[in-house]
Each structure stands twice: as C-alpha cells, then as structure tokens.
Amino acid sequence: MKQTTNAIVMIRPVAFRMNEQTAVNNYYQKVLDGLLPSTVNAKAQQEFDAFVEKLRAAGVDVTVVEDTLETDTPDSIFPNNWISFHESGDVALYPMFAENRRQERREDILDILEEKGFEINDIMDYTSAEEDGIFLEGTGSLLLDRANGKAYCALSPRADEELFIEFCEDFDYAPVIFEAFQTVDGERKLIYHTNVMMCIGETFAVICADSIDDKKERKMVLESLKADKKEIILITEDQVNNFAGNMLEVRGRNDEKYIVMSASAHQSLTEKQIKQLENHAKILSSSLDTIEACGGGSARCMMAEVFLPRS
C-alpha cells in the first residue's frame, strides 16, 4: 500500500464562515471581528485559489469541486472529514458531529472522479451512526499509516472508539488508540481531531507527544512509530496552535515528494525541525490565515487524498 498520492480533491467554498456548530469543541476557531461574512468568504476563496495554484504548479493532480449555495455548509472546505478513498477502490463515508456538516456529503463528487478515470468498487457508509450520536470524522479523526497497516486515533467527541475499531476491521488496519489534550483557559481538554497534533509521512512522523498526557499511551504511540522506522519530529503545543501538526505529504511531478502545510505552520517551525522535514521531502506552504482562524482547520483538512485505482 502506498502512503502518499498525487491526486487530491478540494472543495472551493462559496459561503465559508465560522461554523457555530463546530466551535463547541474545536477550540482553534476564532471570530474575526468587524468582517462581513462576504468578506470572510472572499478572503477564504483567495487563500484557497492561491493554495490550489501552488499545488498544481508542483504537479499535484487537484480536482476542485465548487461548493453550492443550496445547502448551509460553512465547513465544506474540509472534505477529508466526511470521505476517504482507498487503494482497494472502496470509499468510506463518515458520521459528522455538526448537523450542518452532514450536508457536505455529495454523490456528484464520486461521479466527477469516475469521469476522471478513477474506479470505485464499494461504498462503506458509516453515517447511520449519527442517529445514535456516534461520530468518526474521516482522516481528521483517523490517521492512516497505509503502508504499515496502522490507524492512529485520538479519541474525542468526534472520534468514537467502537466505530474506529469497526473501521479498522473493515479496512484491515491495526488500531492505535489514545487521548490527546490541549490547554484551554487553564483546563486540559480533548483535541477534536487527531490530524491537528500528528502527521504521518512515508519515512517520518510529526507529533506533539506533549499532548498525550498519559505516559503509557505516549510511549505506546511513539514506540509504534519507531517500530515502523519513522523519524519522529516532535512539535510543541504552541506549534500545534499554529497548525504545525496539520501537514500532509503528497506527490507532485515526477513523483517528487512534498510536505504541505500552511504559512503559519511553516513559520512556527524551528530551523532544526525544517531541516529534519526537508531530509524527507520539499516543504510547500501557503497562507491560510482566514481559513485557519474561522474554520479551525488547516492545509491537511482541505485535502481529501484519492488512492483509488485508475482505469
């Protein structure tokens, strides 16, 4: 199994704003005072377009799908939470915590990919779990080490343990389960998505080990990564707040590897961390300040990787 792909899907926003339904447990979201919703969306579109341009310039195959105004989907820019695409030709659909995010799921995206020559065999639909208040938000909640057959999951209101184990059984992954925390107003609270504090590349892993408060769990996660010969690059909680955990390794032209992140993530890294990362791949960063502030997500959340076979 490949760990990285050249193909990604991105959703261009039409009504991006701070989603009040996700803010209850996404402590990275902020209200940008004095900005009209139309201004926030226009800024998000500018950031989105510049980001896509950089990815395409590097030779990444980006399928851009325009969001629709028919539904109230302020977070549609983060498709990796509701869908994932696998080498087996299977597609997984995930149960979402925020009710208005459930409307992001669109069948026409599968049609668009099939038109581009991707093959879809089966759809694994976990969305009925929403009726029971059980959630698992795609590759936000699940961090897949596809090459080594492991899935990492920081449990939270958006990542249910039993459903995660069911996913692992269906897709043949060994589960690595833990809890990760951040300090909010002096209190330790669960980090809402695993991919905020951790990233797994082919030969490296970026992780905020300090956010795993339980020492046994921390040791277990780090030993699991070391067992797969990943170089572990540790980041701080402050760097997590700048979305330095929210990276993704992709492939560009001639199979060149890129580690994609936001400008704020890049700026928060030390020279030593940048050197460590550059030993594995080139860094590609783009300014996503508005998207990060209002959406509470960053570069990795905006890219749904496509591993489907091509006909």
Automatic annotation (TrEMBL):
Q: What is the lineage of its organism?
A: Bacteria, Pseudomonadati, Bacteroidota, Flavobacteriia, Flavobacteriales
Name by which UniProt lists this protein? Arginine deiminase-related protein
Q: Which InterPro entries match?
A: Amdntrnsf_FN0238 (IPR014541)
